[in-house]
């Protein structure tokens, strides 16, 4: 059985509040490369910050600052591929976290069991929710 909305909530959560806070660095190969029109010599360290890429409007839409799981359900198949390819919560490419699949399974199982067994509510729903993160 698939839980499409729960899957969308998990992806939206990982996008809005990714678990990596540092730049994911890579070293340009010795022959060099071109990235976004810039020629880079071999040995140059390049990287992307997950929080920045997850707020890219060209990838995730104009409402990137909004937690909206529906974006994952409304996206075309092509758009969904682009969004998932740019969800860097577990890194990307050959250096992607090897525990990604088991972590995603555990997140899904935890959410189902948590809401099956508990009725979660905010203690003070009238107050704004403030999130602080650190690394």
Would you spell out the secondary-structure blueprint of this structure?
Layout: H1 4-16, E1 23-27, E2 33-35, E3 38-40, E4 45-49, H2 50-53, H3 57-60, H4 70-74, H5 77-85, H6 100-117
Antiparallel strand pairs: 1-4, 2-3
List keywords for this structure.
single chain, 135 residues, alpha+beta, two-stranded antiparallel sheet, 6 helices, 4 strands, 12% strand
Q: What portion of the residues fall into strands of 2 or more residues?
A: 5-15%
Class per helix and strand makeup? alpha+beta
Tell me the strand order in the biggest sheet: 1-4
**Total number of helical segments?**
6
Number of strands: 4
What characteristic shape results from the CA principal axes? elongated
| Element-by-element helix/strand order | HEEEEHHHHH
Mean of residue pLDDT? 91
Radius of gyration: 18 Å
Largest sheet: 2 strands, antiparallel
Separation of the first and last Cα atoms: 36 Å
* Helical amount: 25-40%
Give the low-confidence spans. none
Question: Would you kindly provide a written description of the structure presented here, covering whatever features stand out?
Answer:
Heme binds at residue 97. This protein has 135 residues and is of the alpha+beta class. Helix content is 39%, strand content 12%. The chain has six helices and four strands, in the order αββββααααα. The strands form two sheets. It has a two-stranded antiparallel ribbon with strand order 1-4. The longest helix has 18 residues, at 100-117. The mean pLDDT is 91.
Give a brief rundown of this model.
By secondary structure, the protein is of the alpha+beta class. The chain has helices at 4-16, 50-53, 57-60, 70-74, 77-85, 100-117, and strands at residues 23-27, 33-35, 38-40, 45-49.
């Amino acid at each position: 059985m698939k839980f499409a909305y729960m899957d969308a909530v998990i992806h939206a959560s990982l996008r809005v509040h990714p678990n990596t806070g540092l730049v994911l660095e890579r070293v340009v190969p010795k022959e060099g490369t071109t990235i976004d029109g810039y020629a880079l010599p071999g040995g140059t360290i390049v990287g992307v910050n997950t929080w920045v890429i997850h707020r890219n409007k060209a990838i995730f839409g104009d409402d990137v600052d909004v937690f909206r799981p529906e974006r994952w359900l409304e996206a075309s198949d092509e758009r969904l591929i682009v969004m998932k390819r740019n969800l860097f919560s577990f890194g990307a490419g050959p250096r992607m976290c090897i525990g990604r699949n088991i972590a995603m399974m555990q997140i899904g199982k935890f959410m189902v069991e948590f809401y099956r067994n508990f009725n979660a509510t905010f203690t003070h729903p009238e107050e704004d929710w403030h999130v602080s993160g650190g690394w």
